[in-house]
């Protein structure tokens, strides 16, 4: 008998996650049926990822592990993982988050209706999973469906969540038939695939959270200012099928102009004179740039305390923001104390 052709390929691109990937794999493998395979592309991790994977390969033939000789970046590695996959659908899972019990069987049930794309909701917890920051990321009361005629609504309602790649289950032929290379280096190749022209038909959103996000552990945390102030808005505003009004629900065109956002990044340690010189100096020529410099030089610990008080007294729903502030290198004893009461 020939090998069973998988219905679903869970595709993971990993780099330097030896300390975390075991938890992810354990949450997947314990519920993985025979018609699901697990593809892992290791972007030449210099840590012990290869040794960790070697132990799993001895016991789980469903795993196909590809170790790259050089790191090509997360976008390219996810694209390679889909290319290696044999399943009709690919779940672009992350390398440090967890699947809730029965998540795979739930997704397989949804595949029976042959959608082109499934978006899986998530709950958000802190880095060690001991505190729930959000019970579900998408505040949907029930599942939703979108046709090609609903593409604008799908974009405005779901695109912000799609910055998290682990929510994406996509038909492999659709992925392979779309432009990916143009989105290498954006860090969000999946968003480029999903929202390029023409619109995707038959999209389903699973409202019940099937994933647990390990918040605050992203590899790109140190590059947060560049990513969220520059790369992400540039990508969102590059899509031609959507109105400016819809794009504004996701990100302003130049969010770095908002002094309030700069203050927050200064408070969590993401913006300083280095970032000003690297990203802002050329952009603010001809503008009253002294304000951008003052924020970059303002004592960050003071701003950290002020921002924490804002989250506690005014914007009480900003649990993730308070968590970021309490874990910042500029956090004070006061900030850390507030963070314990999340």
Average residue-wise pLDDT? 93
Enumerate the spans where pLDDT stays under 50 for 5 or more consecutive residues.
none
By DSSP (H or I, 4+ residues per run), the number of helices equals 15
What is the approximate shape?
globular
Name given to the CATH architecture of the largest domain? Alpha-Beta Complex
Number of strands: 10
Give the helix/strand class.
alpha/beta
CATH superfamily of the largest domain: Spore Coat Polysaccharide Biosynthesis Protein SpsA, Chain A
* CATH topology grouping of the largest domain: Spore Coat Polysaccharide Biosynthesis Protein SpsA, Chain A
Order of helices and strands: EHEHEHEEHEEEHEHHEHHHHHHHH
- Approximate strand percentage: 15-25%
Roughly how much helix do the residues carry, as a percent range?
25-40%
Task: Determine the N-to-C terminus distance.
Answer: 55 Å
How would a crystallographer describe the biggest sheet? Answer: 10 strands, mixed
């Amino acid at each position: 008998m020939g090998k069973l052709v998988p219905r679903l390929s869970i595709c993971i691109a990993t780099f330097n996650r030896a300390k975390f990937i075991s938890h992810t794999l354990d949450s997947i493998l314990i519920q993985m049926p025979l018609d699901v395979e697990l593809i892992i592309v290791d972007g030449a991790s210099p840590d012990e990822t290869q040794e960790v994977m070697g132990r799993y390969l001895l016991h789980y033939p469903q795993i196909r592990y590809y170790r790259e000789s050089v790191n090509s970046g997360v976008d390219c590695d996810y694209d390679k993982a889909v290319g290696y996959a044999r399943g009709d659908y690919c779940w672009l899972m992350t390398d440090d988050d967890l699947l809730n019990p029965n998540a795979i069987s739930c997704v397989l049930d949804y595949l029976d209706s042959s959608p082109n794309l499934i978006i899986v909701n998530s709950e958000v917890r802190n880095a060690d999973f001991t505190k729930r920051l959000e019970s579900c990321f998408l505040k949907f009361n029930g599942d939703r469906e979108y046709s090609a005629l609903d593409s604008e609504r799908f974009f405005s309602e779901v695109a912000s969540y799609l910055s998290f790649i682990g929510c994406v289950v996509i038909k492999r032929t659709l992925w392979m038939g779309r432009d990916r290379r143009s989105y290498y280096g954006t860090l969000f190749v999946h968003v480029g695939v999903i929202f390029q022209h023409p619109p995707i038909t038959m999209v389903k959103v699973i409202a019940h959270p099937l994933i647990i996000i390990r918040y605050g552990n992203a590899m790109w945390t140190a590059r947060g200012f560049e990513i969220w102030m520059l790369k992400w808005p540039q990508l969102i505003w590059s899509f031609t099928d959507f109105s400016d009004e819809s794009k504004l629900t996701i990100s302003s065109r130049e969010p770095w102009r908002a002094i309030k956002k700069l203050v927050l990044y200064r408070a969590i340690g993401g913006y300083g004179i280095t970032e000003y010189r690297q990203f802002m100096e050329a952009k603010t020529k001809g503008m009253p740039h002294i304000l951008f410099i003052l924020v970059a030089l303002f004592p960050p610990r003071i701003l950290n305390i002020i921002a924490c008080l804002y989250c506690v007294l005014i914007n009480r729903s900003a649990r993730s923001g308070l968590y970021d502030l309490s874990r910042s290198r500029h956090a004070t004893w006061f900030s850390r104390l507030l963070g314990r009461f999340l």
